[in-house]
Amino acid sequence: MAVDFNSAVDRAAASFAKMSDQEIDSWNDMNDAEHLAQHEKFIEGYQVEHCYLCSKDFKTISKEEPCVHWLLRRGKFKNKDIVLIAKKFGYHNICSYLRWCANAERMAANINDLKDEAPDGKVLSSTIKWKNIEWSFDCSPNDLAGHGGSHSNFPHYHFQMRIDSRQFINFNDYHLPFSDNDLFTMKLSEKPGINYGYGARGLGMQDAMSIDPNEIIEHTSPTDSEGEAVFNIQTMIASPNKPMKGEDIYAAFEESKRTGRTMASIFREKFEGDDVYIETIVSPSETVPKITPRTEHKPR
């Protein structure tokens, strides 16, 4: 039986529109509590390399019970097994699980879903890094519409997996189907005022870079390890009428090390005024993985 997503989405959107602010807050709180409970189970298992979804060790592969944890490559699953995983879980569930894994190692900076860095016109495009593995997702409007022969005439996305920078699964190896829940969620997100995300525990660099830069400057801590950094914060100071003293800069640097505050925050506090101009640029860390581009084959 074909699913009329448009009607279902319209009904859902109409229901949201009728909700009061208090009802929406209550609904959001309920969803947040459910996601938090799931994430706590995930972390509890993750710390001992045990999958909370299938209750098996990360190294266990059971063809009778495909699981997303196979993508962690602790067990020797085959390239074609991605089809079994995709059919069982769908895009959003797979992507959420991999985001949780990436964020368990380093929050946000292991997930490049920056819209400014994605190829033009993509429905979705992201790359997730975890330990020695990179996973990439790609979907064009043609893919979402379903194009070509029977192998691709349904809404689908493409998936790539690299292990130690070596090919394992290529984008054009498979056309992986979106689940009904994926399609419903994606259509609902197109409605005004309705946004779908991966929550605080699944956030990537797009969400991180949407934070007010002033909040980033005031509430992040510097690190000596580039591999731990989420943001790159560069500060420029202009003081044409009263040149700054080297000892003042050094004192600010020492205070930053002692207090864990950013240099930008300390400069603003101590030096900004009528004769001093301070400009700070917040950008993603240099170690955020690059989005892997996919060459789309045009439908015949």
Architecture overview:
The chain is α+β, with helices and mostly antiparallel strands. It folds into 2 domains: 5-208, no CATH class; 231-284, no CATH class. The protein contains 9 helices and 8 strands. A hairpin with a 2-residue loop joins strand 2 (124-130) and strand 3. Helix 1 packs across helix 5 and helix 8 (246-259) packs across helix 9. It starts with a helix and ends in a 16-residue tail after the last strand. 24% of the residues are buried. The model has no long low-confidence stretch (mean pLDDT 88).
Ordered list of secondary-structure elements with their pairings:
Layout: H1 5-18, H2 21-46, H3 82-105, E1 111-112, E2 124-130, E3 133-139, H4 141-145, E4 156-163, E5 166-169, E6 176-177, H5 180-189, H6 205-208, H7 213-219, E7 231-238, H8 246-259, H9 263-271, E8 277-284
Helix pairs in contact: 1-5, 8-9
List keywords for this structure.
300 residues, two-stranded antiparallel ribbon, 9 helices, 38% helix
Write the H/E string, N to C.
HHHEEEHEEEHHHEHHE
Instruction: Give the percentage of residues in beta strands.
Output: 15-25%
Count of distinct strands: 8
Global mean pLDDT:
88
Output the structural class.
Answer: alpha+beta
Biggest sheet statistics: 6 strands, antiparallel
The structural domain count equals: 2
The helix fraction, in percent, is: 25-40%
State the helix count: 9
Unreliable stretches covering 5 or more consecutive residues: none
Give a concise summary.
By secondary structure, the protein is α+β, with helices and mostly antiparallel strands. It has nine helices and eight strands.
